[in-house]
Write a structure and sequence with these properties.
Layout: H1 3-6, H2 16-19, E1 26-27, E2 32-41, E3 43-48, E4 54-58, E5 67-73, E6 76-84, E7 87-88, E8 94-95, E9 97-102, E10 108-112, E11 125-130, E12 133-139, H3 140-146, E13 164-171, E14 174-179, E15 184-188, E16 194-199, E17 203-206, E18 217-220, E19 224-229, E20 235-239, E21 250-255, E22 262-263, E23 273-280, E24 283-288, E25 294-298, H4 305-308, E26 317-322, E27 325-329, E28 340-342, E29 348-352, E30 357-366
Parallel strand pairs: 1-27, 16-22
Antiparallel strand pairs: 2-30, 3-4, 4-5, 5-6, 7-8, 9-10, 10-11, 11-12, 13-14, 14-15, 15-16, 17-18, 19-20, 20-21, 21-23, 24-25, 25-26, 26-27, 28-29, 29-30
């Protein structure tokens, strides 16, 4: 699926059983909020190391080589790895580094989003980063070319569309990647091997929010944008949900990261892939806090159609799910947020203004 048109996974376009309740959100008051970094170029994914350093994937300005991973270390902000791919797509969207993942030792993996590999072969791939260099780990586009999406609803059809977006590191040799365009959770392992963990299904969704005539329901692709490892060792995958971008249609899936070639079924109540929560809107990021609470980012609180459909709605949301209650944090203070990461001390970091070149931020929140 072309994410720039229907999912924003490129341009905009990742105790547990008691959490799995859909309840009316409450609004929290009183957290401290400050800007940890500013002047960023399309900041998308974010991760926090055990030492408290914060790593941010910046898609860049669209100028080749302007993609980078930035590290925030206390009050210091510097480039950890630069010269990464960046490109302005045909619809004006910037693609480049979309996410970053860390393992317990602080090793850094970057996910590069979809783009023309004939221009830069690092597009739609996974890289191991070190200061001054990188090592190629896996080619997501090549895997998708060999395993086209049989449920593609693009017009015209585009079953090999791929956009590596969400990332989570399982161990020193294996990285999970959410492909927002191919609607899969993939595992990149040793020797550049890529395998499918799970395939996320299309869903018939309401069109009642659209300002023009349409059938009562349309099939929407899942558009998985985010993945995080939960306290139980399972992978939790958040959907943006594709066109018609129906508010409240985004789900969070609970997936066994060691499963292979599973087709997820929303009616399943057990097994390797089940719906953990639903009722969210336009998810682009999620992470777990040290107490097991789940934090979820909605890039546009009321649905992305209010932004890409010619509107001006850019207000996002950060949700905390804890003990069966869903609470909005810092309501009204986020603009097109991209991702969330929570430090061991409980500080919450959010990439804000995630589709702004030069105006992107990392917001820090302490409850």
């Amino acid at each position: 699926m072309h994410v720039a048109r229907r999912a924003l996974a490129t341009t905009l376009v990742t105790s547990l059983t008691t959490l799995a309740l859909v309840v009316s959100p409450a609004v929290a008051a009183g957290p401290s909020v400050w800007v940890a970094a500013s002047g960023l170029d399309n900041p998308r994914g974010i991760a926090v190391g055990a030492d408290g350093r914060v790593f941010v994937a910046e898609a860049g300005t669209g100028t080749p080589g302007s993609g980078r991973v930035t590290v925030i270390d206390g009050k210091a902000v510097r480039t950890f790895a630069g010269g990464l791919p960046s490109l302005v797509g045909p619809e004006g969207d910037v693609t480049g580094p979309t996410n970053v993942a860390l393992n317990a030792r602080g090793n850094v993996v970057a996910v590069i989003g979809g783009g023309p590999q004939q221009i830069d072969p690092r597009f739609d791939s996974v890289l191991r980063l070190r200061p001054g260099g990188s090592r190629y780990l896996g080619n997501i586009q090549a895997f998708v070319n060999a395993h086209p999406d049989p449920t593609d609803v693009d017009q015209p059809p585009n079953p090999t569309d791929s956009n590596a977006y969400g990332a989570a590191w399982i161990d020193s040799a294996e990285t999970l990647v959410a492909d927002a365009a191919n609607n899969t959770l993939l595992l990149v392992g040793p020797n550049h091997r890529v395998q499918m963990v799970a395939k996320f299904p299309n869903e018939l969704v309401s069109t009642s929010h659209l300002p023009f005539p349409a059938p009562p329901e349309l099939p929407a692709e899942a558009v998985p944008t985010s993945v995080a490892i939960g306290p139980d060792g399972f992978a939790y995958v958040g959907e943006l949900k594709g066109f018609p971008f129906t508010p409240g249609a985004s789900r969070i899936w609970r997936v066994d990261p060691y499963a292979r070639n599973v087709t997820c079924d929303p009616s399943a109540t057990s097994g390797p892939c089940t719906v953990f929560m639903d009722g969210f809107t336009s998810i682009t990021g999620l992470d777990f806090g040290p107490d097991g609470s789940l934090y979820v980012v909605s890039i546009v609180k009321n649905g992305v159609f209010g932004f890409i459909g010619g509107g001006v709605d850019t207000t996002g949301a950060l949700w905390k799910v804890s003990a069966g209650t869903t609470t909005e944090l810092v309501g009204g203070q986020l603009t097109l947020p991209g991702d969330v990461a929570v430090a061991r001390n409980g500080t919450i970091y959010v990439t804000n203004k995630s589709v702004f070149s030069g105006g992107g931020e990392v917001i820090a929140i302490r409850e």
